[in-house]
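Standup, Tuesday
Yesterday: got the pipeline producing structure tokens again.
Today: sanity-check two examples.
Blockers: none.

Example 1:
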Amino acid sequence: MEPSTHERGRFYVGPNGFPRFAGSASGVYLADTVRSDLTSKDHPTPDPGIEDAFIHRNNDEPRSDETALYDIYLLRSKDMLEEDLLRTRLNRYFAIWHPLFPFLDGAYLLQCFNNSLKLAEIHKMVQSNDPDKRDDGLTFDQISAFEGLTPEQSLALTTIFLVIFTIGGLGIDETGSNVDSASKIPTIHSTSQATMLGHLVVGACQNSRIPDLFGIQALLAIELLLYVRRTYRPAMHLSGVITKLAYEAGLHRCPERYATTFKEATDRDLRKRVFNSLYVLDRLLSADFGIPLMLNDSDIDTCIPGGPEKHALSEV
């Protein structure tokens, strides 16, 4: 991906507190530019108008009957009891697939994984000592695997781990004594299940209940699973949605150009890794179907992660 574009554009803080990109051809960028030029000590700041509409759109509070849809899919504490098998699948995924598509934050996911295992053991012990005991009104089968997260955050994290456990289990010989234990491993069993998870994550992104980058990571995980399983058409359709979300999140712009927006080197690296994974999958799917690319090099200047950095760290 060469830095073939010189579009400026700006990042704005979205309703979930994370940056969103407005290109120089967008109404919000033009309105903001005009307002900046007109603003002076002697003149009040004009009404933000379209910028407000851009930042706050689709910031609806989810209804309880909508978030209840998540319950069918969310990982529970009881799903995290087979530690050895789960850890094997986690390790296999990161050893085999992560180097090819490094869009996940391994350190964060490992921390979440270990915390969930400890939580599951605690709840199992409490349940064994007193089968009728409830934790905050919930039985053992109802307790979330991820403590302290919103339903939408748990949905995205559940999606990522289900993909990891599914792809990480490919090719494992589960004959013999491990069959019963392996049957308890939470995985994605069908394309319909994967598609429904994708719809729910997209909804969480649209109502700004999860960070855009986190939602894109969860959707990319589903796309990778669909590609690995050779269900290419659903993968291609999902790729189109992710591409638009990636543009909105500004992943096509090299984070090294925006020093005040992306201050941490680890954050800048993760953004590059997420976008590069999406870019590669777009090429693979387009080649398989012989259809036009979703991501054109003329629209992109994000540098390849780990490769030569073509941009000095500066804000444009």
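Example 2:
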Amino acid sequence: MTTIPPKIAAFLVKIEAFLISLDPKSFPIASKEDSMEELPVLRIAGEIKFVSADGWVAPKLSKRMDKFMLYMLIAGKKALKDGGVTEDVMDELDKAKCGVLIGSAMGGMKVFNDAIEALRISYKKMNPFCVPFATTNMGSAMLAMDLGWMGPNYSISTACATSNFCILNAANHIISGEADMMLCGGSDAAIIPIGLGGFVACRALSQRNNDPTKASRPWDINRDGFVMGEGAGVLLLEELEHAKRRGATIYAEFLGGSFNSDAYHLTEPHPDGVGAILCIEKALAQSGVAREDVNYINAHASSTAVGDIKEFQALLHCFGKNPKLRVNSTKSMTGHLLGAAGAVEAVAAIQAIRTGWVHPNINLENPDEGVDANVLVGPKKERLNVKAALSNSFGFGGHNSSIIFMPYK
């Protein structure tokens, strides 16, 4: 699509990730009792210590389902409440044109892991819901069942780019006329031994156990990997005229975006950054936004050695001539929420548009070689009149995605 799409209001955004905090308490990946080779001990993660499902999810169901589904349902329902989608409004909606497209990178890992442990005893000990509650699509399905929404309903899993892929596809359903309203985003809850252990094994996680609040440090020369987080981010996209007719409060306008593939490596970005550059340039072309109008970027920057630099180089290639450009990384404060990261960061971009404040980059004490610190937001929040905001998400497998929001006028 080369023309500017019909206007889409992005107005209901809700996250559960605000509950995340770095926890220095011990979380061993492997113990001396384990028969497998002992892995390094990891004591830090952006773990949600408590979330209440009261009034959002039935108690019996909340105890059975995996946490990634629980976070997704709560965040989705809070997004609807925040947007004024009351019972009266729900009764007036054409539910055949209301859909849910919320993905997950990892799915129900805890439910699946528990099933494996139960199977060691007997298949009779297995949770009969282990298969449906482990699949990535079931969160979207359960939310749609709860709401009675019969429009497009599925999930996308593209590792840490999941949320942006879901947001873009949700918007396309509105543009095509298939939907008036779409809940979209991502959710993940992989802070369990098998989830953490897998990322430790591929040397992706920070092991700054002695200084957990400084562990997530995008662009800093002393970064040693990302901090795994968990949570959910859900946006409600709505066709503009439909939103205006019901008197919705519109937070921002979703202009579009793009996704593509590096087609290069399992976990590393293309060394020339060509995939990210093409994705950003395509997003600008498809949304009709001039590069000089993009003055705020919420970067993917997860605190990895190679990824941070390659993205920064791509940003300078595309926007280096914009002297007013400001760039930050939400992950410096939340850790990396995997498939939920893009939606939470889209929320951060929209909040910057709404409030005129961009949040700080914390822990950026010694910028890596080739990083222009003048482009990056400092250790304190900054005032910014956002003209257009771009948010990047990149995932294992070479998945690239960029989405763009601007103030609604």
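Quick observation on example 2: The chain has a mean pLDDT of 90. The longest strand covers residues 252-261.
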